[in-house]
Amino acid sequence: MSQIQLRPANWEDIPAIQVVRNAVRENRLSVPGSIKDADVASYLKERGRGWVCEVGDRIVGFSIADAADASIWALFLLPEWEGQGLGRQLLDAACDWLFAQGVKEIRLSTDARTRAHGFYLHLGWQEAGTKCNGEVRLTFRRNHTLQGANRSTCQ
Fold first, then answer.
1. Distance between CA 112 and CA 1 in Å, rounded?
2. pLDDT given for residue 36 in this prediction
């Protein structure tokens, strides 16, 4: 098996990021292709920072943190790479970076009653309401201890 590498995302990664985003089974876009390359570029350059998880020369997951609104804008894996701890690594990178920017509480939203929803709850994220579109809002504070973790940089 090829080595797994987590690294900062760059411009050249945008096409692979789009492939991953559009390959997911849950939290699918209501309009496929509605997130444009320029949207991703804006988050990488102006609003925040992103990370990709590579296996060999293939990007299998990514996360993007948005410092402008203290949120996780995106965290997605190719379906065949779920359940192997890569999402946790990508989330930790994003949380670490946001907390280093001075953020006290991180926000995100996801579809309710999905694997992603359960993933965040398992890690200690707290429900903070529901959006008009039915997505659940979640928050995480730096001083909160993650559940089920031996080590986490997202504390």
1. 34
2. 87
Q: At 108, which amino acid appears?
A: L
Q: Which domain holds residue 79?
A: 4-103
Q: Which amino acid is at 136?
A: V
In a domain, 94, yes or no: yes
97 lies in a domain? yes
Q: Considering its fold, how many domains does the chain have in total?
A: 1
Burial of 114 (0-12, 13-18, 19+ CB in 10 A): middle
The answer to the question of residue 142 being in a domain is: no
Look at residue 32 in the predicted model and tell me its pLDDT.
Answer: 62
The answer to the question of residue 64 being in a domain is yes
Query: Which pTM does this prediction carry?
Result: 0.86
The pLDDT score that the predictor gives to residue 26 is 76
Contact 73, 66 (CB under 8 A): yes
pLDDT at 132: 86
Order of all β-strands in the sheet with 4-8: 4-8, 48-55, 58-66, 71-77, 105-110, 136-141, 126-130
Write out residues in the chain with pLDDT < 50, as ranges: 145-155
- CATH number reported for the structural domain that contains residue 87 in this entry: 3.40.630.30
